[in-house]
Amino acid sequence: MSHRLRLSGPRTFGLAAVGLALALDQAHKFWMLHVFDIGLRQPIHLTSFLDLVLSWNFGVSYSLLSSQSQPARALLVAFQLSIAGCLAYWLWRAPRRLTAAGLGLVVGGALGNVADRLTRGAVADFFFFHTALPVGPLANYVFNVADAAIFLGVVLLLLESFRANSPRPSPAAG
């Protein structure tokens, strides 16, 4: 059995998703912060429910585990890297491309947010989704490309789980 990386195999697909999510996230953040200069232009109203803003998140989703101290930030980075490492191990062993792609998007998005934490001290978020509908915490949500990649990756994993659990047709009796 060969352990070489096949160009069309799940590992390659997953690693490409990691690279794509990470590159798009970091390029978008660089552009928004240093070229577009969102900090001086905000808020930009795109629709009645979506604005472009600059929001620094010192925690994880909804600013949970928020801390601006260096030791707490280091613990959060270590925690995020350990989760990304576990997901990368799962990606490496993934038997199907859809699973690997979903995991790759999650890992790439997580690494994009870790890169922010390491280089900027906090995660830069830009998309402000807001609504008056009673949808709980989703009524006001600020996110970035990395978060969107993580969300899309989770959706792909859910789709794959439904596909994997669906009954397989039995061979026709001759």
Shape field: globular
- Class per helix and strand makeup: alpha+beta
Question: What's the structural domain tally?
Answer: 1
Spans of at least 5 consecutive residues whose pLDDT stays below 50 are: none
Number of strands: 4
- Sequence of strands across the biggest β-sheet: 1-2-3-4
Rounded to the nearest angstrom, the radius of gyration is 19 Å
Instruction: Report the sheet-strand fraction.
Output: 5-15%
Mean pLDDT: 87
Helix amount, in percent?
55-70%
Biggest sheet features: 4 strands, antiparallel
Give the N-terminus to C-terminus distance in angstroms: 35 Å
Tally of alpha and pi helices? 5
Q: What string gives the helices and strands in order?
A: HHEEHHEEH
Q: What's this, in brief?
A:
With 174 residues, the chain is of the alpha+beta class.
Describe this structure in words.
This protein has 174 residues and is an alpha+beta fold. The protein has one domain. The chain is built from 5 helices and 4 strands, in the order ααββααββα. The chain has helices spanning 10-35, 38-41, 70-93, 97-120, 145-165; strands at residues 44-45, 50-57, 123-130, 140-143. The protein has a 4-stranded antiparallel β-sheet with strand order 1-2-3-4. Strand 1 and strand 2 (50-57) form a beta hairpin. Helix 1 (10-35) packs parallel to helix 4 and helix 3 (70-93) runs antiparallel to helix 4. The longest helix is centred in the N-terminal third of the chain and has 26 residues, at 10-35. It is globular and about 45 Å long. The relative contact order is 0.18.
